[in-house]
Amino acid sequence: MAELTPSDDPQEIKRSTRDPAEQRRALVAWLEARLPQGSGVAISEVTSPSATGMSSETLLFDASWNESGKARSGAFVARVEPDLEDCPIFPVYDLKAQFDLLQVVRDRSRVPVPNARWLELDPAPMGAPFFVMDRAEGRVPPDVMPYTFGSWLSEATSEERRALQDASVGILAELHSIDARSPDLAFLDLDLPGDTPLRRHFENLRRYYDWARGERRHPLLEQAFDWLTEHWPGEEGETVVSWGDSRIGNVIYDGFEPAAVLDWEMAAFGPRELDIGWMIFMHCFFDEIARQLGKPGLPNFMRPEDVAATYQARTGHAVRDLEFYQTYAALRHGIIMTRIHARRVHFGEVEWPEDVDSVIHHRATLERMLDGSWWA
User: Fold this and answer.
1) Where in the chain are the domains?
2) What confidence tier does 5 reach under pLDDT thresholds 50, 70, 90?
3) Which of 275, 26, 48, 283 is nearest to 151 (CA)?
4) 276 near 322, Cβ under 8 Å?
5) d(Cα 244, Cα 312) in Å, to the nearest integer?
6) 76-87, pLDDT tens digit by residue?
7) Is 317 helix (H, G, I), strand (E, B) or coil?
8) Tens digit of each residue's pLDDT (9 = 90 or more) over 218-269
9) pTM tops 0.90
């Protein structure tokens, strides 16, 4: 899920130490073992997307084989647990949970998700667990450079962008309609202290911060933890299936309509506003990058009042406490940014600055959220 910044060349940032040629050979051997003997498996060159994402390792490939005397082929995506030696963004990658959730979302909602084909939990074939899903065709709002300038989305008409915005909010409305009380979704309930899903989510975030920071302390992030504790919502509302990484950069669009919703590694139970706040904040993050570069950005896109109104029209739920949930999103993303920097330090691309909070690229935004000026 993790994003890059405008100073980063996506071709230069190291994502993995694994050899693509070896990965291809491993995929051929694995698929041959999964299919009937003599299937004649052939796999194209294995590539990885460069315009988005740095978390799970994503492999794109085409495959062909023979089955029951008929030629078969397909375009696929493999999501591979990152190598622990590559300084992963998150401490845990539960690929089975992601695989199971994709199937639930596909079966119980109209959210378009890829067909999850195969799950492999044995690390032997590829050196780590992975799953394979069908590859969807379409276009994605890029992270690098951010879609807020020079992209197909920034060059679209305001009506087209509004159509995409409303359809994207509709993803959340549809996802949140899934019955979270279903026993087979219990894996989304974090097994941590806390008397509500949000309290447990917050505890999980504290533990993630402690893991990600190592020997460092980030004063701004710790101030944000304190602010959130002091401004806790009076009512959390209904518990829903929260996508977690609910941003348009994780959606493949056919024109301006969602064709496939991706990246479920941050999914958990939580209030509706977790996803709403994250979707709004992540656009703010990319829009700030545009303005820092002297670009006009997309100030009329993903405005909180518009997102909230669309969500309420789709669900009947009045969105509340958005200041809290946008700040919560800014904290979550800030921790991720520190881990991205740690990863780059690990690969020898950068060093830690004396002011460790300077690696939080939305630092000024978070500071203004905490002092109240952001909401003025």
Assistant:
1) 20-134, 158-375
2) very low
3) 283
4) yes
5) 19
6) 999 999 988 888
7) coil
8) 999 999 999 999 999 999 999 999 999 999 999 999 999 999 999 999 999 9
9) yes
Cβ-contact 242, 275 below 8 angstroms:
yes
Give pLDDT, residue 55.
Answer: 61
Helix-helix angle 272-292:322-346, to 10 degrees? 60
Beta strand extents in 250-347 (DSSP E only):
251-254, 257-261, 268-271
Interhelix angle 304-315/322-346, rounded to 10 degrees, is 110
DSSP three-state, residue 286: helix
Query: How far is residue 370's CA from residue 68's CA, in Å, rounded to a whole number?
Result: 63
Tell me the average pLDDT across 19-31. 92
pLDDT digits (tens, 9 = 90+) for 353-375: 999 999 999 999 999 999 999 99
How far is the C-alpha of 148 from the C-alpha of 153, rounded, in Å?
7
Q: How many CB atoms lie within 10 A of CB 39?
A: 16
C-alpha to C-alpha distance for 33 and 26, rounded to whole angstroms:
11
Q: Fill in the DSSP letter of residue 375.
A: G
Identical topology for domains 20-134 and 158-375: no
Identify whether 100 is a catalytic site residue. no
Report the CATH architecture of 158-375.
Alpha-Beta Complex (3.90)
* CB-CB neighbours of 83 under 10 Å: 14
Q: Whose CA is closest to 166, among 23, 309, 266?
A: 309
Q: Per this entry, what is the length of the chain?
A: 376
- Would you state the CATH architecture of domain 20-134? 2-Layer Sandwich (3.30)
206-219 pLDDT, tens per residue?
999 999 999 999 99
Average pLDDT of the chain? 93
pLDDT at 13: 47
Q: What is the identity of the amino acid at 137?
A: E
Task: Look at residue 17 in the predicted model and tell me its pLDDT.
Answer: 66
The answer to whether the CB of 297 falls within 8 A of the CB of 149 is: yes
Contact 311/317 with Cβ under 8 angstroms? yes
Residue that is written with structure tokens 């952001």 in the block: 374
Amino acid, single-letter form, for residue 314: R
Marked catalytic residue, from 8, 143, 245, 321: 245
Looking at residue 54, what is its pLDDT?
52
